[in-house]
Amino acid sequence: MPFDERNFSDLPPGERAADRHARRLVAFWLFGVAGMILVMVMLGGVTRLTGSGLSIMEWAPISGIIPPLTQAEWQKLFDLYKQVPQYALVNDGFGLGGFKQIFWLEWVHRLWGRLIGLAFLGPLIWLWATGRIERRLRPRLALLFALGGLQGAVGWFMVASGFLPDSTAVSPYRLVIHLVLALVLYAAIMWTALDALRPIRELPVRPQTRSIGIGRLMRRLAASLCVLVALTITAGGFVAGTHAGLDYNSFPLMSGHLVPLGYARLSPLVRNLTENIAAVQFDHRLLATLTAIVSAAIVSIGVFTPWPKPVRGAILGLGATVALQYVLGVLTLVLVVPIGLAAAHQFVAVLVLTAALTLLHGLRGAV
Fold first, then answer.
1. How far apart are CA 358 and CA 340, in angstroms?
2. b/e per residue, 346-367, with b = 16+ CB within 10 A?
3. Could you give the CA distance from residue 85 to residue 321 in angstroms, rounded to a whole number?
């Protein structure tokens, strides 16, 4: 065997079986919370695509759990929504039935956020009180809970921007802040879960591969990939916020050009990165392509190098999710952003981030 698999076990020398069980319990709890956040990201994408986010005009963390129960309550909320610019400029005349459709999407979105908070806090208190959480992880978990609360406030900060005069959607900047914070929270929870499941140790490679620094090379590529994935998703947030996907619906050229003619039309130049539809979409395409190239390099090196099963699985999973995501991105663009494809594109983006983080974590001890 090219590896001593015992060196990659999740049971460090001298660890008791009870301690191993506690670590696994913490890890799988955190994986569950991360999975809920993944669903939340997709729900957020659907509410944005359908314009549902502005249907609830107040932030009520406790009382907002209860939806309207009578016709009078529904009519009261609908009358409030009629005062929002989005109704007059986009949805004028769609009736109470149409309002209920967008209301339920946003209500489920917010309810799911509350459930995530409960799914994190309840087990955190029990696991902490029973001594099942390692001391090194406790400050991190407390910080993650605080970040989760902050995310709820940022979500309302984003929604409130859609109530401004002549506004039919939320601010792209606030949308991206909300998205990035969600991804930071997701990535931190995933990394903490992996830390609990597999504490760091040396990851051996064959002597002939060690001499050319293949472990260090793979770590650097994986770290670079994580940065690229984060930048690509952030750029995708601006694509969503500016509705840039509704223009230049061809691939790989944009109106017959590799670089669109209006790329730098705004002044100062930096505004083009976030406000110019041509530049926003091109940057997202470019970053996605660079992500695919780096991923292909990792897979090409990884399949011809002996790695433990968890690392090899992460490499193959990375290749599959990046390929799927690239295809989804192209289809979403050329078909002019159908809601189902766009939601799948956002969902798989987080899976790509998951695969990249899992690989980087698995390569921590590579030499």
1. 27
2. bbbbbbbbbbbbbbbbbbbbbe
3. 39
Radius of gyration of the chain (CA): 23
CA distance 21 to 57: 45
What's the whole-model pTM score? 0.89
**What secondary structure letter does DSSP report for 24?**
H
Task: Say how many Å lie between the first and final Cα of the chain, rounded.
Answer: 18
Give me the mean pLDDT over the 290-301 stretch: 96
Q: Which two tokens stand for residue 350?
A: 């987080």
Distance CA 201, CA 366 (A): 9
**Tokens 């209920």, located at residue:** 100
For residue 31, CA distances in Å to 125, 129, 179, 213, 335 come to 17, 20, 19, 32, 34
Structure confidence by residue, pLDDT tens digits, 234-259? 999 999 999 999 999 999 999 999 99
Distance CA 7, CA 10 (A): 9
pLDDT digits (tens, 9 = 90+) for 198-213: 876 544 554 444 445 7
Instruction: Tell me the CB-side half-sphere exposure of residue 53, using CA atoms within 13 A.
Output: 25
